Amino acid sequence: MPTFKAVGTANSSGNTAPTTDVQLPEGRPTSANEGGTMHNLIIEGGHRLTGRVRVSGSKYAALATLPAALLADSPCLIENVPDIADVRAYLDILRGLGVDIDQPEPGVVRVDPRGLSTSTVPYELARAMRASYYLLPVLIARAGEAEVSFPGGDDIGPRPIDLHLKGFKQMGMEISVEHGSIHGRADPGGLRGASIYLDVVSVGATINLMLAAVAAGGMTAIINCDRGPYVVNVADFLNSMGARIQGAGTDTIRVTGVGPRGKLSGCRHALIPDQSETATFMVMAAATHGDVHIDGVIPGHVEAMTLKLREAGATVEETGDSLRVRSPGRLKGIQVKTQPYPGFFTDFQPPLTSLLTTAEGTSVIVETVWPGRLKYLDELRAMGAHAQVTNQAAILKGVAGLGGARVTAGDLRAGAALVVAGLMAEGRTEVRGIDHTDRGYEGLDDKLHGLGALVERVEAPAGTGPGAGAGDDSSEDGQG
Length: 480
Fold this sequence. Notes:
The protein is of the alpha+beta class. The protein contains 13 helices and 25 strands.
């Protein structure tokens, strides 16, 4: 494993503490509000979506693959990388660590880790990027110690990283938490393999422990892990680098680590399509009684959405890497319960809930993953939806139609739900804080234009829109 001397200052005990004086590169603003200017999306509803749209690469796979590339001793070429705010933020974090980043063409990122010069993740960016926690085991593998600020995330309920830290400690990592940062350290022999049981199925913990296990010595078993396609995609990337991971896609992953003296090499890897974007366009097609071909997808990754849309009365056809979604008339109410993959993914829930507000009869939505994810229903009520929330369940009584209104997107998936509602509604809808969707959807405005939607992004008037703390999804599980 390539190493470098951690940059830092001596503390009172004589140990080296990573420095926080890191010069960040200048460039395009990468936060959800693009440097402080918020935007709203104006939608003229009532227009059918028709035509073809191509899905971008997976956000969740990108946010794990980029830090994983630092484990290699030579450059990695990552393809099908989505141009979204969260990826731009992560690339700036890597640049701040001394990593050479090149983007030779759209959707392609070359990561050269040989210039890595510090094991401290800059607070200014890490605080808003939940996936920054993937850097902790990677930097410890490279430098023996690391400091990462507590990750940010959408206001959709508590998402502690206790599972991650518990597993790291079982592998021999010394962890302390001070002043909003996590300090991790491994002894000179590096991390060691362990059998780790996850009390809760978690995408983030599964990937993070897999990253740690790759660099550890001996065998690691991760039991009750997430089985999602993004986990498999990251495991495939690591295996292409020379790792030995078995069982990705099942509930038990076994990793034979290379140890501190082992070697992982750079490779070329393509990210899978984004399943959440795929599911969102499926819903948009059905919600507008449209006829849309969604290209560049893996149909099996969105099977839960396919089955639920068919149950509601929509038509979904699969042809190779393309889906065609049609809905000629009013759909009927259904019941939905979010669950870990291959169940109904929590990110699919908000867009589908918007569609079901006008479905005939009663629909029941049970959110089992993130208890705060139903907050956006207040905005749907402003558009005429009839929704009652009890604990983690929403009961929807279908109305004849929604009306345009001024609503606010508090997080990424809520923003997607409100765009769906605006496309369905009669009249004009203004979605404030639409920038949150930029964190997970590449070129959403342009893709909607291409399907015949009437949408326009406008700069929000000063002092309006959600505040800086309104949300930041790197939930990645949403991830925990």
